[in-house]
């Protein structure tokens, strides 16, 4: 795998458990104890009912491609090789995550395709959750 050249996320108090789980190659999301909803991105209050009573729950990492675009031209401040597939994945548990689709020929990418999380270690502390097509 080529050396990672993109930005490295800096955990905040709200996102630290997400990144700690990712470091273990687990996908974990905040869950509201008041209404039961999972959400992404991590934040201090439930986006459905505004409760701050949250716990972290490991999720399957499986989902489907909700939408995508193929990025052909790099952006300043995000120096990663192009083309790459910028994806919004709808997790099996409901929340949608923006990520990157890897291990795929961009010409074969289709909305609705089954995907699963993979983790890429980019520093001693950070592993990025990316997605790849589920092998048939
Ligand atoms: Zn809630």
Helix content: under 10%
What structural class do the secondary elements suggest? mainly beta
Contiguous uncertain segments of 5+ residues: none
List how many beta strands DSSP finds. Answer: 7
Strand content: 35-45%
Strand order of the largest sheet: 5-4-3-6-7
Describe this structure in words.
With 136 residues, the protein is mainly β. Helix content is 6%, strand content 36%. It contains 1 helix and 7 strands. The chain has one helix at 16-23; strands at residues 28-32, 54-58, 62-71, 84-91, 96-101, 114-121, 127-133. It has a 5-stranded antiparallel beta sheet with strand order 5-4-3-6-7. Strands 1-2 form a two-stranded antiparallel ribbon. Strand 4 and strand 5 form a beta hairpin. The site of zinc ion (ZN) has 8 residues, from loops.
Quick synopsis:
It is built from one helix and seven strands; from the N terminus they run H-E-E-E-E-E-E-E.
Short key terms for the protein model shown above:
single chain, 136 residues, mainly beta, 5-stranded antiparallel β-sheet, two-stranded antiparallel ribbon, 1 helix, binds zinc ion
